[in-house]
Specification:
Protein name: Rab protein
Organism: Microdochium trichocladiopsis
InterPro entries: P-loop_NTPase (IPR027417), Rab (IPR050227), Small_GTP-bd (IPR005225), Small_GTPase (IPR001806)
Bound molecules: guanosine-5'-triphosphate, magnesium ion
CATH architecture: 3-Layer(aba) Sandwich
Distance between the termini: 24 Å
Oligomer: single chain
GO molecular function: GTP binding; GTPase activity
Family: Belongs to the small GTPase superfamily. Rab family.
Number of helices: 7
Largest sheet: 6 strands, mixed
Structural class: alpha/beta
CATH topology: Rossmann fold
Radius of gyration: 17 Å
Length: about 210
């Protein structure tokens, strides 16, 4: 069985406008916590790690949480080096946040490797349903994601809705792209049996059939 240390490592970058909920998404996904009062903008870059199983295989995700505020985005292009996937986050209750996506996707395409997976996430689903006002309809968001050839999912860090889905989808897509994986990583991705119970407290025994 593969030990925790021998799991293939995938690098995922999380980008998007300030206040969209990038850090909250990661805090909920990796530590199952949520801070409704949080007003602390990320400075530079933060890092979290999490194990995930997709299609019966285990992976270690190294997830980089970037700053949305321009003044805190130091050396932002260097973040992209070696990234297998880029999750672009916006706030579905904030139209301006949606309208800024072109620029974020453009940044990702210019700096990430050609085959890197780009995936769109709409956050704060709890704020718009039921009875809340969406600033972006589901149809519009899906159409935009499709036009960018990106997957799409809506989440709430507050209620946990769909919180794991973006990571499952992104990893599922990454492993379909052998050009993205280095020789050793590709080999282990193809053959490593799943043993996520061998690890410590950060173990995530999540499975997805999608
Ligand atoms: N209701 C609700 N609020 C959320 C959700 N996700 C984030 N928030 C709130 O939105 C605010 C901004 O969230 P952050 O996660 O700090 O945003 P960020 O994208 O990391 O921002 P920068 O670090 O400045 O780029 C915080 O007050 C969060 O509590 C959510 O799913 N639902
Ligand atoms: Mg942040």
């Amino acid at each position: 069985m593969a030990s925790e240390d021998s799991l293939p490592v995938l690098k995922i970058l999380v980008i998007g406008p300030s206040g969209a909920g990038k850090s909250s998404l990661l805090l909920r996904y990796c530590d199952d916590q949520f801070d409704p009062e949080s007003s602390t903008a990320t400075i530079g870059i933060d890092f979290k790690t999490k194990k995930l199983a997709v299609h019966g295989k285990g992976y270690r995700l190294n997830i980089f949480d970037t700053a949305g505020q321009e003044r805190y985005r130091t050396l932002s292009t260097s973040y992209y080096r070696g990234a297998h996937g880029v999750i672009v986050v916006y706030d579905i209750s904030n139209r301006k946040s949606f309208l800024s996506l072109d620029r974020w996707i453009e940044e990702a395409r210019s700096n990430a490797s050609e085959n890197a997976v780009i995936y769109l996430v709409g956050t704060k689903l709890d704020k718009v349903a039921p009875g809340g006002t969406r600033a972006v309809s589901l149809e519009e968001a899906k159409a935009f994601a499709a036009s960018q050839e990106a997957g799409y999912c809506e989440v709430s860090a507050k209620t946990r809705t769909n919180i794991k889905q973006p990571f499952v989808d992104v990893v599922g897509e990454i492993v379909q792209r052998p050009q993205l994986l280095s020789g050793e990583l590709a080999k282990r991705t193809a053959s490593s049996p799943l043993d996520l119970n061998a690890g410590g407290s950060q173990a995530s025994s999540s499975y997805c059939s999608c």
